[in-house]
Amino acid sequence: IQTLRGAKHTVDDVAAHTGLSARTVKRIAGEPAVSSFDDASERKRRGIGRPSKVEAWRVVVEGLIKELDSEGMPLLSMEILRGLRAKKFKGGKSAVYAFVAGLRDDDDDDFVTRFDGLAGEFCQHDFGQVLVRFADKSIRRVRFFASRLKYSRFVAITIVDDETAETISRCVVEHYGRFGGVPLVGVFDRPTTIALKWTSDCVVTRWNPMTAGTMLELGVGIEVCWPRSGNQKGSVENLVGFVKGSFFKQRVFNDVVDLHEQLVEWQHEVNEVVPCRATGVTPRARMAEELPRLRPVKLSPSTFAVKLPVVVRPDACVVHDGHSYQLLPKVIGRVGTLYLMKERYAELADLRSRAGSRDTARVSELLARLGDVLRSN
């Protein structure tokens, strides 16, 4: 139309030639000159056509696009789709993928370098917590402990009750068992459950004895991040952000049992189904290269005992975590080591709180067994 009008054809001639109305010819002739003949891009730029069903969810999608995965990369479109469906989105996959592609910034030319450890060298560990809203509208704070092998990107997540040194020790042993071996170094943030004191140049002078003892038994070195050093902490914290953004924020849970079941399913998906964008293959495939470099796990979660130094009081009692245990008089005053096994400790604590005269014999037997695990120095 603009070309014909530029050649001095009348409005009526152009309308007859193009099959459009004279009014449309006048409108197009008065618009800025056409500089691009890419119809698809022009429709996208001007928003021509039927609006996408995802348009009403633009704010939600833009928020999800800002989420980062464990590598500091934007979430995959499949995770964004899962997040939308968790919020009752009824549209199709293709519409979401096309909408997300249109929102992503293709002009971001920032140069990013990624640090990759050698196979079997590093494993990252950190706690995380998130508020979870269940299907019945109840809200609960959920804590988890996350571990990831740096080379293969294989992850292991455990829901925990607290963030104590004992929890770290038990989770590390469990996760190394899932990996099938232990790395050379475990990388942590710098909480008091790991390091208690350090010098001005950040050299640790006092370690938490429980965590350090467990890592020593496993034969794994400890590396902690420098305080206020985002370039070091970022990779560890991205692991927690990845779990929050890719799992917790994209799913709806009926209850705690359902949460645990979906967590198992999600770990299978990210470890064995979805290729990692940093490596181009699944963590399970890359694990085949890393596993031969991992050393055997020396401890088993079922038999692992946290070791605590104790002194038997004059009343033949040992106190730990607010619980008092009556031992045999012959161990009064001795300094020893309490082998605290998770299942046995729970059983002893429970029986002590419920015991009465009807169960005195059973309690005496259990107390005698506890006395046997106190080894004199």
Describe this structure in words.
This protein is of the alpha+beta class. It is built from 14 helices and eleven strands. The chain has helices spanning 2-6, 11-18, 22-29, 39-46, 58-66, 77-86, 93-103, 165-179, 209-218, 230-246, 256-272, 283-290, 342-354, 360-372, and strands at residues 122-133, 139-149, 155-160, 185-188, 195-198, 204-207, 221-224, 305-311, 317-320, 323-326, 335-341. A five-stranded mixed β-sheet has the order 3-2-1-4-7, with helices on both faces. Helix 2 packs across helix 3 and helix 8 packs parallel to helix 9 (209-218). It is elongated. The chain starts with a helix and ends in a 5-residue tail after the last helix.
Major beta-sheet overview: 5 strands, mixed
- Write down the overall mean pLDDT: 78
Query: Helix-strand pattern, N to C?
Result: HHHHHHHEEEHEEEHEHHHEEEEHH
**Quaternary assembly:** single chain
Summarize the structure.
The protein has helices at residues 2-6, 11-18, 22-29, 39-46, 58-66, 77-86, 93-103, 165-179, 209-218, 230-246, 256-272, 283-290, 342-354, 360-372; strands spanning 122-133, 139-149, 155-160, 185-188, 195-198, 204-207, 221-224, 305-311, 317-320, 323-326, 335-341. The chain is an alpha+beta fold.
